[in-house]
Structures are given as C-alpha cells and as structure tokens.
Design brief:
- This protein is of the alpha+beta class.
- The protein has 2 helices and 6 strands; from the N terminus they run ββββββαα.
- It has one domain.
- It is globular.
C-alpha cells in the first residue's frame, strides 16, 4: 500500500480502498509500533462506473469528516497525499454548503470505509 515514508505532524496523507479515498492529517507517528494517529479530513467517493485508473475524485462525492473521530492505523496503509489533488479537494470541502454537510451521513460513510479497509487488509491490524 503505502511507502515507508517518514510522515510529519500536520502532513496530509491518503488511503485508497476500492472506489473511495480517505484524506487525513497526521497528528502523531508512533515509530515503535508503526502506527499513525490520523485525523480524518474528508472522504472522496467516485461515482459508480468511473474508471478506477482515472482518479478524478472531484467527479465524485465528498464527505466532510473534520468533526469525526481520529484513527490509529498502521503506517503502511497510508501514502503521502498529492498536493495538487488535496488543494482542489480542500477548496471543494470549504465550499460545501450547510445542507450538504450531513454529519450523520459522513460518519456512516467513514464507518463503512473503515470496515472495507479492515476486510481488505486484515493482516495490517494484527
């Protein structure tokens, strides 16, 4: 999945699983346990039928996760996020109007994403 990078506090990282990509801010890295404490920022989900190799996240649905729970996950699942991609998505996130910011739906989407990652990478969590 991810490269063996040295993530820094405040860095934006991403984790792709299926048709979705989680973007999170690194809060702390626990080197001794190879764990990343990450604060989710947003979840980008591709529309059905989009080409998985053309990751145009801006064509999908964006969920605001900034009010949600933090994650403690294995470092090797994350990769450094691409600046250009993140800036575009953060701009979209800031422009979401209040009725598009459904905290319950965002929480449910994050929970479903977490379940998919656990299923896809069971050995990473042992």
């Amino acid at each position: 999945m991810g490269c063996n990078l040295q993530f820094k506090t405040g860095q934006i990282v991403s984790l792709e699983c299926g048709d979705a990509c989680l973007y999170a801010e690194v809060i702390q890295v626990v080197e001794s346990r190879q764990i990343c404490w990450a604060r989710p920022l947003m979840l980008a989900v591709l529309e059905s039928g989009k080409d998985a190799f053309d990751r145009a996240w801006e064509d999908g649905t964006l969920y605001d996760l900034r009010e949600g729970a933090d994650l403690l996950w294995p470092l090797n699942l994350f990769q450094a996020a691409v600046d250009v991609e993140v800036i575009s998505l953060l701009t979209q996130l800031q422009s979401l109007d209040a009725k598009k910011k459904d905290a319950a739906m965002a929480s449910r989407q994050l929970r479903d994403f977490v379940d998919r990652v656990w299923e896809a990478h069971p050995n990473a969590f042992k």
